Amino acid sequence: MDVILQMGVSGALMGLVYALVAYGFQLTFATSKSINFGQGELVMVSAFISLTLLNLGVPYWLMAPLGLLAGALLGLAVERLAVRLALEQKSEGWILMTIILGLLFFSAAENIWGRDDHPFPTPISSAPLHILGIDVTPVELSVAIGVFAVMGLIELFKRKTLWGRAFDAVSADRDAAELMGISAKRTIMLSYALSGLVAAMAGILVSPITTVGPTMASALVLKAFSVAVVAGLNSGFGIVIIGMVLGALESLASYYIGSGWREAPGLILLILALAIRPNGIFGAATIRKV
Amino acid sequence: MKKILMSMLLCMSAHTLAADTVKIAITGPFTGGSAPMGVSMRDGAKLAIAEINAAGGIGVGGRRMKIEVIERDDEAKNDRGALIAQELASMDGLSGVIGTANTGVVLAGDRYLQEKGITKIITPAAGSASMTQWVKAGVPDLSIFRFSADDGLQAQMVVAEAIKRGLTKVAVFHDTTNYGVSGRDDLLNQIKGQGNKLQVVATEKFNIGDKDMTAQLLKAKNGGAQVILIWAIGPEMAAVANDMEKLGMHLPLIGGWTLCMSNFIDNAGKNGNGAVMPQTFIEDPITPKARKFIDAYHKAYNVQRIPSPMSAAEGYDAVLLFAAAVKQAQSADTRKIKAALEDLKEPVKGVIADWKHPYSKWNPANEDTHEAFRTQNVVMGMVKDGQVVFANEADKQRMIKQK
Questions:
Q1: In which residue ranges of chain B is CATH 3.40.50.2300 found?
Q2: N or C: more exposed end of chain A, with fewer CB within 10 A?
Q3: How far apart are CA B60 and CA B365, in angstroms?
Q4: Which CATH topology does B152-279+380-402 take?
Q5: Hey, is the C-beta of B90 within 8 angstroms of any chain A C-beta?
Q6: CA distance A132 to chain B (A)
Q7: B6: pLDDT strictly greater than 80
Q8: Residue contact B247–A135, C-beta within 8 A
Q9: What pTM value is reported for the model?
Q10: DSSP state of B371
Q11: Beta-strand pair A129-131/A134-136
Q12: Average pLDDT over residues B285-289
């Protein structure tokens, strides 16, 4: 029993990071029906920028907001360079453009920071705590707290502020929203900035556990895709649940079936979801008007 | 006009033939997770080359030949390694190749060199398959030599260490690379070979890049393991050490020599203390020769600590052996160098040991003919506060006496 609990909790905490990256997909999908396929590279580049700040002697608690700011700016850059023109032309060009921009970020990172993995210092202790018979580290708990905090704040913003309500309006009907005086362009820019911020948050939270290197997010982003697809791209709540479930399943599979089978449950879940509920478990059916 | 052109061409070709250099290629992973091994090996080798060149080069037939280096980064990727080996195999006037840190890369590339009969000294890759593949293939003649403590030898020492400590239940951890899998087989063979005194309660694997080792460790814990025998590279071994701390497991970690890699020591921090591994060289100035080498390395590359000391020392000594073979062969021809390596007359004073006739004529039934290291060249090292030190004083005294 202890083992199930330990494996489940460890996995679910890791799964929250998948959820956070997936949440970045969801934010931009809501406003523009586009996603950044280079989201993983944003996580990685933001983590490198944060690490560079730390190495320059910037204290951790100042580094975090600066890192988040860098992420938001990167998100804006992605919107401007890869997405805006394609959306204006109602083409699907953003798919290729975001992938290309991601590759560009990747090779830039390799050239600037090198290909090695670097440890990411954190003031949060990694000495284990024993809670209800299982072992977790404060670093892992900080991941959970960080994920919930940033997602909670953004959801609050979307529901309670005028700017946030504009998200829903643009999501529901872009043209109608424009007629009501909402700038769809600004809303989409904002969603990409938030998406970049979320990526930076994921980078800062996960780096103490995974170390920072150019390939740090390549596995992460694939899992995040699975989470986004299985949960559906409309539900922030669903993404958290599916992220945690996927993380826990991975851990349990690697314990009970064998360490080579770690990735299997995620892939099976993905295939099942696509076969049975293509809009995602928590997704609403979309009607496409032609 | 034609005549002038012809004579000019002749002059040029005559000039290239008479080039007074020995061309050596150094290959290895200079970037990525295996970089500490590759970079240290390369820098150690270049240190030896710089010393030889500064002394005027190698005396061949009244001339002094300097060593010219060609560097290739294989990124620890098998396909890159194969491409590089093909390139080197077709290169004009190459005297030999030194390097390769990853067994998979050796397996992917060395056959191209062997086909062309190009002399290669493998260092620091340790996987047994690197040399046993030639025994399996039964090649009558081999141009590939190894200069590192092979995994068979290391596994023997690792298992002996566990038995010596009076442990009985072990967990075997390995990564899914060629190196990890062949290391696991070596360990299991050695456990059998040394009288089945150890009971294997868990055999667990992980991929390159895995950071969460909770599942593997809990399996070991629930099986009642008293020690983890591990065959992998730095970053993943660090993840094992760190997750052990998280789970409150304080099992000793004994494993392949890669436990000395700086990316294990740095990423594991204090959790890496006490990890024990076979070493051919410890960054401890126990002899004047070792002190000179360590100081020269620190100074030349501006570091306080060699990223992988034994890779550096092996790279250094491998170049000395190669240069001695060039001198004995009195030629930069790779086949003649190979013949000389198989029968080195004069002992070579290296930083690891005095090498007396390290190799002999290739025997297709016994890969030891092309292996330089024997048990007496290897000691146990231990991680202690960011450094690798001698695990026991007796080993240290033995090495001082040997040199």
A1: 2-149+287-372, 152-279+380-402
A2: C
A3: 34
A4: Rossmann fold (3.40.50)
A5: no
A6: 13
A7: no
A8: yes
A9: 0.80
A10: B
A11: antiparallel
A12: 88
Averaged pLDDT score across all residues of chain B? 90
Per-residue confidence (pLDDT) for residue B17, from 0 to 100: 45
User: Which residues in chain B have Cβ-Cβ distances shorter than 8 Å to A260?
Assistant: 176, 205
CB contact under 8 A, B218 and A211: no
- Looking at the predicted complex, does its ipTM rise above 0.85? no
Please indicate if any CB of chain B lies within 8 Å of the CB of A46: no
For residue B148, give the DSSP letter: S
Average pLDDT over residues A208-234: 87
Direct distance between the N- and C-terminal alpha carbons of chain B, in angstroms, rounded to an integer: 64
- Pairs of CB atoms within 8 A across A/B: 70
Which residue type sits at B84? I
Contact B132, B155 (CB under 8 A): no
- The answer to whether residue B18 scores a pLDDT higher than 50 is no
Of B214, B235, B266, the CB nearest to A10: B214
Token pair for residue A36?
A: 């950044």
- The verdict on B343 touching A (C-beta cutoff 8 Å) is no
Nearest to B190 by CA among B156, B167, B220: B156
- State the residue for tokens 């009288």: B195
Q: Is B219 on the interface with A (CB under 8 A)?
A: yes
φ and ψ of A60, to 5 deg: -50, -45
Let me know if B335 is exposed, middle or buried by CB neighbors in 10 A (0-12, 13-18, 19+): middle
B62 CB near a chain A CB, below 8 Å? no
Record: contact B31-A260, CB cut-off 8 A: no
Domain B2-149+287-372: what homologous superfamily? Response regulator (3.40.50.2300)
Q: What is the pLDDT of residues A130-141, one digit of tens each?
A: 887 788 888 889
Q: What count of residues does chain B have?
A: 403
